Backbone:
């Protein structure tokens, strides 16, 4: 089993920042006093996606993923000499700090260990095939009763079938920041194909793995990969590339406040997935 300290390192990887918790620092005030660089910002589940998107700006792995997605959407072969990078050096982050309250950020009631599972049935969520993250361990995020009702999550006691009002599941791929360059500078859409600015994810865990960030734990020296598990509001989703990639459009010129509202109503992370490599 992967413990909570490794999950905190996974947050460091996704946020490209130092992340600690009130529980592990004794108190938030003590951590604020001990911070040696930039003052820490509280990381909230509702702000998680915007924080990850901002981190993409300064993460080499994210830039690499943008190039790969560009080639994929453009239908071209990977460029010669291109070297894919997935590893994030969590020990090299110096200038950004976040702090969480583990009791408010995580929800252990809904943790699930898919490590040794292999599905023999087809699952559905939100009317779409749900490819469960077999081989991964999920740390559930505390989202219950945190939005406008809980219908988007479905019910607590699940079968293979969808329930009314729930949203389909996706795995976070890459973001609007990379899509800007992909769409405007490189990719010329063909007839009937229009890819836009926004947040890209995929309903297939196997499609998300090549884009997953990896890190070497400073706690045990083992290597892990991390992916976000989300629910997507189908009202705001567009499908591309044979439905393998889903886009939540975010128009140019959208202010930060409006962008956060758009993200909240369209894509909601509810699980942090970890797998030892």
Residues:
């Amino acid at each position: 089993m992967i413990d909570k300290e490794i999950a905190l390192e996974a947050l460091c990887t996704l946020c490209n920042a130092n992340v600690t918790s009130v529980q592990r620092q004794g108190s938030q005030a003590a951590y604020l006093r001990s911070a040696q660089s930039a003052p820490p910002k509280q990381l909230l589940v509702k702000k998680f996606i915007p924080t990850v998107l901002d981190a993409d700006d300064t993460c080499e792995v994210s830039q690499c993923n943008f190039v790969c997605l560009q080639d994929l959407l453009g239908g071209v072969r990977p460029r010669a000499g291109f070297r894919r990078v997935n590893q994030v050096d969590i020990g090299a982050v110096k200038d950004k700090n976040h702090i969480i309250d583990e009791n408010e950020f995580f929800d252990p009631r809904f943790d699930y260990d898919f490590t040794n599972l292999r599905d023999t049935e087809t699952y559905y969520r939100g009317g779409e095939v749900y490819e469960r993250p077999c081989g991964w361990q999920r740390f559930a995020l505390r989202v219950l009763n945190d939005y406008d009702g809980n219908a988007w999550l479905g019910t607590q006691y699940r079968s293979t079938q969808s329930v009314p009002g729930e949203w389909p599941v996706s795995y976070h791929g890459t973001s609007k920041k990379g899509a800007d360059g992909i769409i405007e500078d490189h990719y010329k859409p063909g007839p009937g194909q229009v890819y836009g600015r926004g947040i890209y994810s995929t309903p297939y865990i196997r499609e998300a793995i090549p884009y997953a960030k990896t890190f070497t734990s400073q706690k045990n020296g083992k290597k892990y990969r991390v992916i976000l598990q989300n629910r997507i509001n189908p009202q705001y989703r567009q499908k591309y590339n044979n439905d393998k990639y889903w886009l939540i459009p975010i128009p140019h010129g959208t202010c930060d406040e409006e962008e956060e509202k758009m993200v909240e109503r369209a894509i909601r992370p509810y699980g942090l997935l970890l797998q030892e490599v």
Summary: The CA atoms of residues 96 and 270 lie 24 Å apart. Confidence is low (pLDDT under 50) at residues 176-194. Residues 60-74 form the longest helix (15 residues).
